[in-house]
Write a structure and sequence with these properties.
This is Sensor_kinase_SpoOB-type, alpha-helical domain. By secondary structure, the protein is mostly helical. About 90% of the residues lie in helices and about 0% in strands. It has a single domain, classed as Four Helix Bundle (Hemerythrin (Met), subunit A). The two termini are about 25 Å apart.
Length: about 190
């Protein structure tokens, strides 16, 4: 291997292997970042969906109190099921972070659902005093849910900040690597 051709072959193979290792590292790193980003976005979407379903269900109960029609009842049960599904998804996917805060949020949603059921039940029984009381409790729970949703989103964004900083730092290092490869290729 004392010939120039042998040395160039060894240098070329080492360079190709280093480039392949770097490409594999970048691929694995990009997959991890993409998965983290995907998880974060999913969590935001779940919180947004819960907030929307809560508003819809509160409006359905108010409409049911005003007009006891079958259409309002079926809309209420449909939206209640959607919120229940979103609550289940919340319970399965929101398993990281401040567990007590997430647990409190889940209990708040369950309380809201319970108050809507009581309100509708007393509307059916035509007990004005009871459904008025539970309607107020439902409104309070809905307000707390909106507030807690904003707090959870704020917490998620705060947790996302270090991830974004790492992503920015990684991109800066990748730019330096590309510049180094470019300069190296042209013999500078």
């Amino acid at each position: 291997m004392k010939t120039i051709q042998g040395k160039l072959l060894v240098y070329f193979l080492v360079f190709v292997m280093m480039f392949e290792w770097t490409a594999i590292f970048i691929f694995i790193s990009s997959n991890k970042l993409t998965n983290t980003y995907q998880t974060s976005i999913q969590r935001f979407l779940i919180l947004n969906r819960i907030s929307q379903h809560t508003n819809h269900l509160a409006d359905d109960v108010k409409a049911l109190v005003t007009n006891h029609g079958i259409e309002n009842t079926s809309t209420y049960y449909r939206d209640k099921r959607k919120l229940g599904d979103a609550l289940e998804r919340f319970s399965t996917e929101m398993n990281e972070g401040n567990h007590s805060e997430l647990q409190n949020y889940r209990h708040l949603l369950e309380t809201f659902l319970h108050e809507t059921e009581l309100t509708v039940g007393f509307v059916i029984l035509n007990d004005v005093e009871q459904y008025t009381f539970h309607l107020d409790e439902m409104r309070n729970a809905a307000d707390y849910i909106q507030e807690a949703t904003l707090e959870l989103i704020d917490t998620e964004l705060t947790a996302y900040q270090p991830f974004f900083e790492k992503l920015k730092e990684r991109n800066d290092y990748f730019l330096i690597f590309i510049i180094f490869l470019f300069l190296r290729r042209w013999g500078c």
